[in-house]
Amino acid sequence: MTLDVGSTALFPSAIRWDGPVADEATAQASCGVMHVHGRSRGEPNGMGVDLVGTAARVLAGTGAQAALLANARGASIGAVHTDVARSALLTVSQYLAAACAQDDEAVPIEPGGPPFRSADGVLFEVDTLDPEAWRDFWVRAGAPPRAAGIGWAPFQFRYATASAPLPEVLFERTAALPYAELAAVAGATGVSICPLMPLENREREAPWDLQSSQGTYVRKEATGTLPLDGMVVLEAGRRVQAPLAAHLLSLLGARVTRIEPPGGDPLRGMPPMCGDTSARWLALNRHKDAAEVDIKSPSGRADLRELAAGADVFLHNWAPGKAEQLGLGADDLHAVNPGLVYAYTSGYANRLVDPPLGTDFMVQARTGLGAAIRPSDQPPSPSLMALVDVTGGLLGAHAITGALLHRERTGHGCRVESSLLAAADLLQANAVESIARGGSGRPPAGFRRPLRTADGWCAPTDEDAARAASFGDTLASLSTADAVAFLTGQGLRAVPVTDDLRALPADPRFADCLRFDATGSVEVLTPWSFQ
Which listed residue (389, 455, 482, 517) is catalytic? Predict the structure, then answer.
């Protein structure tokens, strides 16, 4: 199926739903989203929000903006198509790369993880990037220091593994204390804590903000076949959000240079490895150059300003206020390059009063997304798949291509900011609209629940789910292949659920979506085709 997502007399753009991705449910099932989302529960689990459809729409908009920019620079792109299967695989690319690597994960992938529940019944998340703060929180909450120590590694890596098998005593300790006391302990130890907010509390914002600078831009002509050929991007990012945004810009043709600390990015050595480089790191950074810069030193900051003087884009996702403290804010870099697009992929875009730590799982808790992704017969719980980070990365690339197009049309550099908060808004838009119509906003019981077969799982389309579920006993006695064939014979559409990411590169359905690079790491190919 080809879905038109907007066109002008000059430029058509379309999203292609082909092959095993007939709708959101089958895309999640086929491309590994259900598997990764379900890791913390030990079985595939459908996501109540339309992650794949949202990703494809954002990517389609990014591709369209990039093509319009290229045409303004002298290219002649007539249309852009965005592939849904590749969009879906991009959302799990770091998990896919890790699963297909030669060695093991740094921590085991087993069921388990937050949220925690207090003695007075409050479901909540905690987060910190500091192991000492983590240990102090749990010791003050009455947990044995050894249990806190054992829990740190799976907790720290949960964004990378989508699971967090924590010692049971940690859950027992939170269940013994009222939330107010736990919040006081968090405040005393520097740990961020946030109850799972109901969907009704959502505060909404635009996906990104753009502010023009007073400087002028000297136009660059298009230099190649991809829309951003000839563009130079500096990226000072960590984890997923900013690195993924820059990765997408590299797929569009930009030359991206990562700003890394002296000695290089420590995440290059994060298991599992492909050769001497982290498979997960490669998934987000394989097409980039690197420059080691000590931004803590005056000479290092001067070096970065010099690099920015010759760049088109500077992108970071540092903590709020850090760039300005270092003299690397938008005004500082516009002073050396008035035509620069200064991009900030933030947590909350400075729109919430006293927000929790701006990480994926805290944003899910703070926005009510933990309720929107779970059907009403399950307790609210943020996904341990980094879906907000991923969507935030897609939004970051979308914001930057829009800012580059704005610069091309106005002649002015600008500052643009996207956020994880806006990513959550996009993902839960349908839920918020449901609440506005008097509904609960939560998916109904059993929504997108895969059906068991004798050797695995199958997933029907959303449209056919109710009828398919009525054959549950029959399907449970059949192999997955036979179960899908049985449902097809009933006039229903269904696909096998991918429950082992290592099978995807050999799956003929995705032969034109994946390849192995020179290191042996699996790579998701660009979701765009330009004509």
Answer: 389
* pLDDT computed for residue 104 by the predictor: 85
Please state, for a pLDDT cut of 90, what percent of the chain lies above it.
Answer: 85
Report how far residue 257's alpha carbon sits from residue 235's, in angstroms, rounded to the nearest whole number. 6
Give the whole-angstrom CA distance, residue 392 versus residue 386.
10
Q: Measure the CA–CA gap between 154 and 105, rounded to whole angstroms.
A: 11
Least confident of 219-233, 316-330, 361-375: 219-233
Radius of gyration of the chain (CA): 23
Nearest to 458, CA basis, from 477, 474, 475: 475
Distance separating alpha carbons of residues 385 and 280, to the nearest angstrom: 14
Among the residue ranges 120-134, 200-214, 460-474, the one predicted with the least confidence is 200-214
Q: Which two tokens stand for residue 161?
A: 């593994």
Closest CA to 283 of 251, 315, 317: 251
Strand partners for 292: 260
Q: Supply 157's token pair.
A: 């890596």
Q: In angstroms, what CA-CA distances link 361 with 64, 439, 480, 489, 504?
A: 31, 25, 33, 42, 27
> Can you give the pLDDT at residue 4?
36
What pLDDT score was predicted for residue 9? 39
Token pair of 334, please? Answer: 């516009």
Res 203: pLDDT: 64
- Please provide the DSSP assignment of 282-316 as one string: HHHHTT-EEEE--TTSHHHHHHHHHHHHT-SEEEE
What band does 186 get if pLDDT is binned at 50, 70 and 90? very high
What CA–CA distance (Å, rounded) separates 2 from 188? 54
Give dist(CA 475, CA 452) in Å, integer: 7
Strand 255-260 to 232-236 pairing:
parallel
Nearest C-alpha neighbor of 22 from the set 53, 46, 49, 66? 53
Residues 6+ apart with CB under 8 A from 51: 24, 28, 33, 91, 387, 390, 391, 427
Query: Is residue 232 a contact partner of residue 312, using CB atoms and an 8 Å limit?
Result: yes
Query: For tokens 């093991």, what's the residue?
Result: 104
Q: Identify the DSSP state of 450.
A: P
Backbone angles phi, psi at 313, to 5 degrees: -135, 135
**Residue 260 in 3-state DSSP?**
strand
pLDDT confidence tier of residue 2, bands split at 50, 70 and 90: very low
Q: Is 389 annotated as catalytic?
A: yes
Percent of the chain clearing pLDDT 70 (strictly above)? 96
